[in-house]
Amino acid sequence: MLKKILLIPAFVSVINCFAQAKTDSLLLTILQKANTVVARKVLEDPQTHRLQIIYTQINRDGQNKPSFKNYYYNYDANSYFNPASMVKMPLAFLSLEKLNELNYSGLNKFTRMQFDSNYVGQKTLLKDSTSDTGYPSIANFIKRAFLISENDPYNRMYQFVGQESINRILQNKGYNRLRITRQFMGYTEEQNRHTNPILFINPNGSNLYQQDGAYNSKPFDFSNPFLLGKGYFNKNDSLVHEPFDFTKHNYIPLEDFQQMLQSVLFPSSVPEKQRFNLKKEDRAYLLKFLSQYPSETSYPKYNDSLFYDSYVKFFFQDSTHRMPSHIRVFNKVGWAYGFLTDVSYVIDLKNKVEYMLSATIYVNQDGILNDNKYEYETVGHPFLNELGKSIYNFELKRKREFRSDLSEFKIKYDKRNPLDKRTAIIEVDN
After folding, report:
1. For 205, left (φ over 0), alpha (ψ -120 to 50), or beta?
2. Angle 342-280-283 from CA coordinates, rounded to 5°
3. What is the DSSP string of 111-159?
4. pLDDT band at residue 19, thresholds of 50, 70 and 90?
């Protein structure tokens, strides 16, 4: 519903601006060649758009071993952006890691789950109609989180891993600036500290493994405030004449997201402590659904005219809504509060091109949060598409000593049965 906007004094409170932002000349040169009005407008005022970009060149040696070189534009690990659905990516990795470390007979990503409740506001989940078994599972949560970025799978993986474990494990892997404090359920700070009891069950309905509800008693460091905008609409749909406070929201720096993705794509390229404990088949599952399209997937069966192939491929999202047949993108995106973020590994199987590209942009011209008036379609998506094209075209022309052997990432994707007459999903919470 559109909301009436009141006149507000034109001030903006932004903590941690780009005072220490890092920019490399190569990436700046590439960006300066952008030839659209939107791209030029954003690049003229990167601070207002809180723009951060990381472009990573990947070069192979004679044994096909990759090396990585990052180039930055306006990058500052201390400059806040709201990660939104980006947090679903590490939760998928952590969920598989936890299953492997539990090492319980019969317990795996396909095992059926049921979620009970034991604290105020918690919601049960006993069935999942989007799954081929009719029950929730970590495997189906990962598909739903990656294919079109559904929200409840994140909540359920958060409940499985637990708030304390999420933060402790990721920080022990070297991601020291992050905090993951919130589910996407409108919970209070205290409610988010509690997680549901979970039951894993056998196909015959008998109990296999039970996990009690958990509580995180450890405090977070909220001493560094993040305030943004000049006003916001609260839960009562009233306009508050002060900046929106993101201090207790989720936060992970852009480079950390990229490093997490790189650690799964190329485990040996990162220090051992940063890797996730994944079985070979778990890693293959992640790679598949980081890059598979909704139109290829039977369970869940999404309406592919609404959830088109480039729906969560921001760097390739144009008016055609199609993806080139020789390109695959292994990525995760997020969008909320005027922020758009994409962290991607791109491969061109025909031209043997590969690179990583990560970016976040803020598009909120009126400075009001929660008014449903963000320039996603007029500024955010067109800019990210132009950025994606600029980097891809540069990579096509870039000389390499050795051509990349990308056979490891040539994946056999699912194919939806054309005779499947089930009604496709048209409404989701993402």
Report:
1. left
2. 10
3. SEEEE---STT---B---TTSSSSS--HHHHHHHHHHS--SHHHHHHHH
4. low
The predicted pLDDT at position 35 comes to: 84
Query: Would you state the structure tokens that stand for residue 266, as one six-digit string?
Result: 């190329």
* Residue 163, token pair as written in the block: 């708030």
Mention every residue, 6+ apart, whose C-beta is less than 8 A from residue 297. Answer: 143, 147, 414, 416
The pLDDT tens digits of the residues spanning 245-271 come to 999 999 999 999 999 999 999 999 999
DSSP summary character for residue 350: T
CA-based R_g, the chain, Å? 21
What is the rounded distance in angstroms from the CA atom of residue 229 to the CA atom of residue 403? Answer: 47
Q: How does DSSP assign 363-414, residue by residue?
A: --TT-EETSS---IIIIIHHHHHHHHHHHHHHHHH---SS----GGG-----
Token pair recorded at residue 257: 């997201």
Residue showing tokens 């559109």: 2
Query: Do residues 194 and 215 make contact, with C-beta atoms less than 8 angstroms apart?
Result: yes
Q: How far is the C-alpha of 410 from the C-alpha of 113, rounded, in Å? A: 31
Distance CA 382, CA 123 (A): 38
Alpha helices in 173-301, H assignment, sequence order: 189-193, 254-265, 280-291
CA–CA distance, 344 with 359 (Å, rounded to integer): 9
Rounded to 5 degrees, what angle do the CA atoms 246, 228, 249 make?
Answer: 10
pLDDT tens per residue across span 204-217: 999 999 999 999 99
Q: Is-contact 338 363, C-beta < 8 A?
A: yes
Q: How confident is the model at residue 34 (pLDDT cuts 50, 70, 90)?
A: confident
Average pLDDT across the chain, whole number = 94
